[in-house]
Design brief:
Number of domains: 1
Distance between the termini: 27 Å
Number of helices: 3
């Protein structure tokens, strides 16, 4: 698991184009982030910052913004 692996050495998880993810995938990402909160893991997500990239994903965008605050 991520937690077990990070106990041996720090990990970097990179997720590209997160703006393409559906709401359930983003919820899973949020749950994983909560689970590994105290682990030596950095999760780097990339996404477009324009509104067109998030069209149809209003709930997903709100979920991400909620976690960032």
């Amino acid at each position: 698991t991520v937690r077990t692996s990070s106990a041996r050495r720090p990990l970097l998880l990179v997720l590209d184009d997160v703006h393409e993810a559906d709401v359930s995938s983003l919820r899973l990402l949020a749950e994983v982030a909560e689970t590994i909160r105290t682990a030596r893991v950095v999760v780097l997500c990339t996404a477009r910052d324009d509104d067109r990239a998030w069209s149809g994903h209003v709930q997903a965008r709100a979920l991400l913004l909620g976690r960032a605050v």
